Amino acid sequence: MLEIAVLGLLNESPMHGYEIRKRLATTLGTFRAFSYGSLYPTLRRLSDAGWISEESPLAETGTARSRRGKRVYQLTAEGKEHLADLLADVGPDAFDDEGFGARLAFFAQTRSDVRLQILEGRRRRVEEKRDGMKRARTGERFDRYTRELHEHGLESVDREVRWLTELIETERTENARTDPPHDR
Question: Transcription regulator PadR N-terminal domain: which residues (predicted)?
Answer without folding.
Answer: 6-84
